[in-house]
Prior knowledge:
Largest sheet: 9 strands, mixed
Radius of gyration: 33 Å
Helix content: 40-55%
Number of strands: 26
Amino acid sequence: MISKLLTHWTLAFLTVLIVTLFHYNNNYVVETARLKSFDLLQQYDTSKHSNDIAIVTIDEAALEKYGQWPWKRDVLADIIWQLREAGAGIIVLPILFSEYDRLGGDQALQEAITGNGVVIGQNGSFSINKNGVPRGVAKIGDPLPFLFEWDGMLGPIPYFAHADGVGVLNTVPEIDGVVRRLPMLMRVGDSVYPSIAIEVIRVAVDQPSYQVKSNEGGIDKMRVPGYPIIQTDANARIWLRWNKTFDTVSASEPKKFIDLADKTVILGITADGLTNVIASPKGGQFSYMPSAIALQNILDGDTISRPYWALLGEIATTFSVGFLLVLLGRFSPYWVAGGSILIFVGGIVYAVHYAWINYLYLLDGTMPIVATIVVGLHAIFLRFVLEFFEKQKIKKQFAGYASPTVVRMLQENPALIKDGMKKEVSILFSDLRGFTPLGESFGDDVKGLTNIMNGYMDAITQPVLDMNGMIIKYIGDASMHVHNAPIDDPEHPKTAVQCGLDMLRAVEKFNERITSEGRPPVGMGAGINTGLGYLGEMGSTQRHSYDVLGDSVSTAARIESKCKEYGCVLLVGENTYEHTKDDFFWLKIDDLAVKGKTVGIGIWTVLDNVKSAWKTAQRKHEEMHELYKKQKFQEAIEQCNILHNHFDGRMSGYYDMWIERCEFMKTQPLPSDWNGVFVATTK
């Protein structure tokens, strides 16, 4: 039992899984490491001077001229009028005016900020809700659950509530106290409050509200009407690119305000002891800087992003590299496996840096790097430790995989097994879909789950046996079987396809039984490929089993692994299709170079219960693929939209995937010899 659990692959998988889960459990150490890796990218970012924003500083010289802080508000009013006279653009006062000025001047400041393109501040609070100034938001979906929420909002006194703009001043530091992201929209209850940075944009384009589109994953798009879409994360935050520098003029030198003509001016407190200093990836910064940085990022259109596929890509890279290292550790010389660790680490670092330099994408390389090192060393170590267990496993594998018919044939002709053969065969891989909800429905009833899984295996096995196929192996809830071995079947491609359809019908009947018992239904994915296979008894002299090897087998497995990706339940390779194209109703799925291949093969899916109207849709489907090969991606998208609900909706997931691919391909520079083949990077 222990040897079955502690296999090379099981331990490798568990190692990768543990590393992945540990990395994404939001613990302080891991999250800090990830964020610090992002900071490294900004450390070497080229500085860019702003021509759009300038800072008027309340510094020691200004305090000497105007007196101690806080100034009478008519002093601030005079500065605003001087800036306006100098031709400044939007004027930003990141100051909270939540109380009346005991020294007077509120009336003067009110006159200065009303109708003069002035934006003032308000603060989110966990205890006070007073005078907050929300903004209207045109919503598609419900963005509120995804916005950072305050218990209250401390806004300006009524004198200033009608300033042209009122924005939130708060920053929301990360787990380590460093400010890397700034929310553009926040909420108190059902009311939405913009940050002061985005409020400047709204005032500049003279719009009364914002537009936000959200979906189940979070904020999808946000914009100020009349202004381009602003790139945020799912929580309406933007990553701050801290490479901006700004002109500064002391508030004590109004004669120099003439240099600020047409610029957005931020009145920033810099005098010692008067302002909070926040931590940034580039060191300590004045409290007004996140808003200034965010505004300049928006104006430059160079906002940093974590693309929607980043997490999936990082996990996929971790598992792909991990299992490749397992293969290298298992079957390659040790120096190759060890050198591969260094190569993969270097490749990950390069990919992260490339994504940042060229696209301003933040990719997390820490998890793939740690996993590469741990799994690589693990794989090398397991090569020493698990060889014994592998040999023991082989010794215990002889029977229990073949139908009685096959067993009898093997008993009658053992030389056929021992000597082996090379012949064309059709291989079918199947895999269970929906095991998790089924398993959860049994709770702690392990025996009940075992019985139901045995029933599933019986259901999918019987069609194989009825068609004189041979079960090669069960892999958890997956299976592999072969046709034309050892019993000859001249029509084995057709037999394999029909067997696949019969297995799917068997799953339907199985679902009828388990759903009547209150269990969730399951599904099955299947992949078929026809090609040469090496067949015979494989293993040690003490323990052996009948097996099939060859490139056609791995191709069949990888074709099956693409079922989910393409939204199909049965996929076949090109050879199988060529042998059976006149026997079934086929739809071309893709020209695919499976992982490890450079040459593409066609893959198809077969549909049963064919309707006459499908013939027309089939031709449109073929036209769509021709448009794609001709790089007419938009026309291909339009054709997919037309086809979306055809074939009784059974191909809708496929067309969704294809639309997404075409949208991506529209953005890509393609080589002159591009032939439409999709190169898979995962199994």
